[in-house]
Design a protein that fits this description.
Layout: E1 4-11, E2 16-23, H1 25-30, E3 34-42, E4 52-56, E5 74-79, E6 92-101, E7 111-118
Length: 120
Amino acid sequence: LSKVTFNEIYNDTMDQYIPYPVFSPEVKYLDGKKISVKGYVIPIEETGDEDILVLSGLPYSSCFFCGGAGPETVMDIKVKKRYKKSYKRDDFTIFQGKLRLNDKDLYFLNYILENAEIVE
């Protein structure tokens, strides 16, 4: 998933330049396919959405949001059904689900794992 480049394009709505992803053919091949990903959980309970969380390839202190890593290192995880587990920051977890590439919707990250389940 790291095989992605970004084009800075001016967005009138945001009134700023936004890095839009350009996915490599290898990454495009995975779009819509069932994959497994592992990483560090970044809970986002403050949004009020208990069906989505963020998975980072790096611990929180080094991640895209706080540590300067690129946007290709994080992924939205949309869980298949409401999960009962309460995640803590940096819980190392493996999820399986259908990958969706996102190069337009600024309300979501560039990678979205849909119908995700925890791999035990």
